């Protein structure tokens, strides 16, 4: 298959390249090669290339900064996927758009997880622009996948685990929020889900694609320190004690029933963390 990866230099973009490169012809575009906010350029590029798939890994991901930069976030997160959807339809390409748990308000009881067909209700600028990106895809092409993920981490770029590994070595104790629930997701495993979806040609639509299992940042940090043999006390705190510009969802739990029913194999977050730490700590 000929596959165009946009935002190819981002964290997920790197992993998607590594996962797909042996079996597919990849065209990897960073922002300099293809700015997804430039509608004319996107249409020209995609209709000339005629890829079988477009995997859109490009996004404005600075959740807090987005609160003061609506226009910039909207351009990349809403207009960008819309442009790609218009171009995908013209070129008869299949569009894979990556979305987020932030399209929900995160207020649901933590005993439950969000299903794909639930009404979106974003409460942040980042979340609302990503939700508009989903609508732009749905309204402008028929052959699409929207893969919502959450708590994504990988070896490329910054992430929560890298921060905790550093703090755990520098300090005797750290405070970590214990009232946000979700599934830490290894970018390698999301890239594998994308590959499996392409290989299996699963039905088009929206799917929830995080690692399996749920935890809190506090419990996850204890697991990180335990596996990395770091002796640092972890204190549970509330979101209110840990102020951030953009409100974080209390419940980011995304039900995987729909994608699992397609026979897609998804490891647990514990398994993802172990493999990530092997990769990360071997680099040091
Ligand atoms: N990270 C998470 O925890 C998380 C959670 C849920 C969902 N997601 C979603 O997962 C996807 C991948 O996220 P990520 O963490 O890999 O993001 P990332 O590391 O921030 O990468 C995003 C990439 O998009 C590029 N980009 C920005 N504006 C662009 C434009 N106008 N045209 C083309 N490329 C542009 C960036 O390039 P520059 O760096 O050069 O600007 C960067 O390489 C995104 O859709 C994100 O919303 C992420």
Write the layout of secondary structure elements.
Elements: E1 2-6, H1 11-20, E2 25-29, H2 39-49, E3 53-56, H3 63-66, H4 70-91, E4 94-100, H5 125-140, E5 144-149, E6 152-153, H6 160-170, E7 173-177, E8 181-182, E9 185-186, H7 187-200, E10 205-208, E11 215-216, H8 217-227, E12 233-237, H9 257-260, H10 269-283
Parallel strand pairs: 1-2, 1-3, 3-4, 4-5, 5-10, 6-9, 7-12
Antiparallel strand pairs: 8-11
Helix pairs in contact: 1-7, 2-4, 4-5
Bound molecules: NADP nicotinamide-adenine-dinucleotide phosphate (NAP).
Describe the structure.
With 284 residues, this protein is of the alpha/beta class. The chain has a single domain, classed as NAD(P)-binding Rossmann-like Domain (Rossmann fold, 3-Layer(aba) Sandwich). Helices cover 42% and strands 17% of the residues. The strands form four sheets. Strands 2-1-3-4-5-10 form a six-stranded parallel β-sheet, with helices on both faces. A two-stranded parallel sheet has the order 6-9. A two-stranded parallel ribbon has the order 7-12. The radius of gyration is 19 Å and the shape is globular. The mean pLDDT is 97. Bound molecules: NADP nicotinamide-adenine-dinucleotide phosphate. The site of NADP nicotinamide-adenine-dinucleotide phosphate has 25 residues, from helix 1, helix 4 and strand 4.
